[in-house]
Design a protein that fits this description.
The chain is α+β, with helices and mostly antiparallel strands and 228 residues long. It has a domain at 4-131 and 215-219. The protein contains 6 helices and 13 strands. It has helices spanning 4-20, 28-35, 62-66, 115-131, 178-200, 207-214; strands at 23-25, 40-41, 55-58, 72-77, 89-95, 101-104, 108-109, 135-136, 139-140, 142-145, 152-155, 167-168, 218-219. The strands form 4 sheets. Strands 1, 3, 4, 5, 6 and 7 form a 6-stranded antiparallel beta sheet that branches.
């Protein structure tokens, strides 16, 4: 059983670090539009998941927004004002100006004392990608789905089918700091190793992901206003 008092201490450390990197608590409107399921109806298999009440949002600088960078980063957990739920998870999400998800990290499940630390690391990488969103053909590029599950790449808005105009997900105007990139490379290597072990045993490493895709959350007919 996890120590909830310890989690409160972790969260108390998370808050100033999140603010340091430009994240701020979501507004009441964002809490309604973003946190509470994005106006989605959960499938029956996920009725056990409890909604959160707190999210942290990163918005790029005004100069970038004026040029058309409408992406924002949302850090969401199932933490509530009065404490934590019994089964907590977290996600780092990138939304466009219409509050549509263009990227979602793998879910973080609260299983150890590094929950908020790991969540913040992922949030910093997402922030970096939004802050240094590539500018190509006089417009900001779009995050597009790649050939493989969970793969994403930067796609030219003006010439989406011209390969020379598209970029890898990490090929930004400015690369990640060496220590950040090293940590991500290590994490990806570990994921590849785990997937290989599953395949060697005759399993499918993407079973859970495919199940989530097959039984998605259904969108309600509610239009959420963008932040800016």
């Amino acid at each position: 059983m996890l120590n909830f008092a310890s989690l409160e201490a972790q969260y108390a450390q998370f808050v100033p670090q999140a603010k340091k990197f430009g994240f701020f608590p979501g507004t009441p409107r964002e809490l309604s539009a973003i946190v509470r399921g994005y106006h989605l109806v959960r499938p029956k298999s996920r009725n056990y998941q409890e909604p959160g009440e707190i999210c942290w949002v990163y918005v790029p600088p005004e100069q970038e927004r004026n040029k058309g960078n409408d992406y924002i980063v949302v850090v969401w957990t199932t933490k509530r004002e009065e404490g934590f739920v019994t089964s907590d998870q977290g996600w780092v999400i990138i939304l466009n100006g219409k509050n549509e998800k263009v990227y979602t990290s793998a879910p973080f499940v609260r299983t150890n004392e590094n929950f908020f630390e790991d969540l913040l690391k992922e949030a910093r990488v997402a922030r970096w990608r939004v802050f240094y969103r590539p500018f190509h053909c006089e417009k900001f590029m779009l995050l597009a789905r790649g050939k493989y599950l969970k793969s994403r790449f930067w796609q030219c808005r003006e010439h989406p089918h011209v390969r020379d105009h598209n970029r890898r997900f990490d090929d930004l105007r400015k690369p990640l700091p060496p220590e950040e990139q090293s940590a991500r490379d290590k994490k990806r290597s570990q994921r590849r190793s785990r997937r290989e072990r599953v395949r060697e045993k005759g399993g499918d490493p993407f079973t859970a992901l495919k199940k989530r895709i097959k039984h998605p959350w259904v969108k309600k007919q509610i239009t959420a206003e963008p932040r800016f």
